[in-house]
Amino acid sequence: MERIFNFSAGPSMLPVEVLETAAREMLNWHGTGMGIIEMSHRSKPFDSMHNKTIADLKELLHIPDNFKILMMHGGGTLQFACVALNLLGDKTKANYLITGAWSEKAAQEGAKYCTVNTVATGKTSNFTTVPDPATWNVDPEGAYFHYCANETIHGLEFDLTEEMLAKIGDLPIVADMSSNFLSKTIDFTKHAVVYAGAQKNAGPAGVAFVIVREDLLGKSLKIIPSLMDWKTTADNNSLYNTPPCFPIYMCGLYFDYMRRNGGLEAFIEIARQKSTLLYNTFAESNGYYTNPVNENFRSKMNVPFLIKGGNEAIEKKFLNEAEKVGLSTLAGHRSVGGLRASIYNGMPMEGVVKLVEFMKAFQTNNP
Ligand code: PLP
């Protein structure tokens, strides 16, 4: 059977070369006579793979030496709690900007450990825009400022502007980049912590990457489980217990692939081209396809859209017909409906071209 184009919001497509390498190496990794997932995580071969994965990520994202790169269990969600448990110190409050479902979830989890100050919320706009920084209410007594750089469900992505940074002041800035990790450069002079689950742009689910400025380590609350403690993780090079060996290995293959294919900069350009093609198709459809998000904040990774303003019968027909031609998993998140094309790094340009051609033909056939 031919491979299809999978537009899922995650887990998502991986490059064929990465999958083929993994399949080939599964029985015998680099002449060791066994697969990497059968190997002790304390062994030399495993260690070399583990350290190369970290080194390649550092190179790809140009991560400065004063940041630690951690690979942790529990996906992006466990980091919602880790952020609070590692950063609160003797503070009792933290700042959360709410721009969609994921930042909302992060704040709800944070609220188990501290008083959450909602800096601003985009809820009144149905999360189609980032609240104007002039309206932000940042509490300088909070331990940190948390935001989600790409709202996977609402398709809203943004960078912190100078005006936003002025509002945040000296607070450590924490970014959830689960769904736009490795699709853009990260300014580490502005961020204190960046975290991301792997299963969109980095590999399979089961590992989360945490990139944390060294001086923030060692402030965790006493009650923190050891496995959630960033310092314990850093001190043990992410090998405090048996790590998620398979996802780490797969991410390592993906990072190596990215390095050999033009590095981050090449993937940024492809993401720009793919998302432009899709958004242009909406613009040229005379309102047949629409994306509700403010043009300044449209995501390059997750592109939600409606047909005829949200005609469910036609959208259902679209999904059925798309599935038949190998354009899969285009339904919107159950909480917002409509359609959504997630176009992470693993989605080739070819897939987006095929989608756009299908969309145009569908519009002609279903006016
Ligand atoms: N943050 C964002 C922006 C996400 O999109 C997701 C999952 O889709 C998560 C956090 C949660 O990640 P995980 O499923 O790895 O816990």
From TrEMBL:
Reactions the enzyme catalyzes: 4-(phosphooxy)-L-threonine + 2-oxoglutarate = (R)-3-hydroxy-2-oxo-4-phosphooxybutanoate + L-glutamate; O-phospho-L-serine + 2-oxoglutarate = 3-phosphooxypyruvate + L-glutamate
Record's keyword terms, sorted: Amino-acid biosynthesis, Aminotransferase, Pyridoxal phosphate, Serine biosynthesis, Transferase
Cofactor: pyridoxal 5'-phosphate
Domain Aminotransferase class V: 4-354
Pathway assignment: Amino-acid biosynthesis; L-serine biosynthesis; L-serine from 3-phospho-D-glycerate: step 2/3
Top enzyme category: transferase
Record-level GO BP terms: L-serine biosynthetic process
Top-level taxon of the source organism: Eukaryota
Gene3D superfamilies tied to this protein: Aspartate Aminotransferase, domain 1, Type I PLP-dependent aspartate aminotransferase-like (Major domain)
Signal peptide: none
E.C. code: 2.6.1.52
CC per GO annotation: cytoplasm
InterPro entries listed in its UniProt record: Aminotrans_V_dom, Pser_aminoTfrase, PyrdxlP-dep_Trfase, PyrdxlP-dep_Trfase_major, PyrdxlP-dep_Trfase_small
GO molecular function: O-phospho-L-serine:2-oxoglutarate aminotransferase activity; pyridoxal phosphate binding
Pfam families: Aminotran_5
NCBIfam families, per the entry: PRK05355.1, serC_1
Family, as annotated: Belongs to the class-V pyridoxal-phosphate-dependent aminotransferase family. SerC subfamily.
Protein name: phosphoserine transaminase
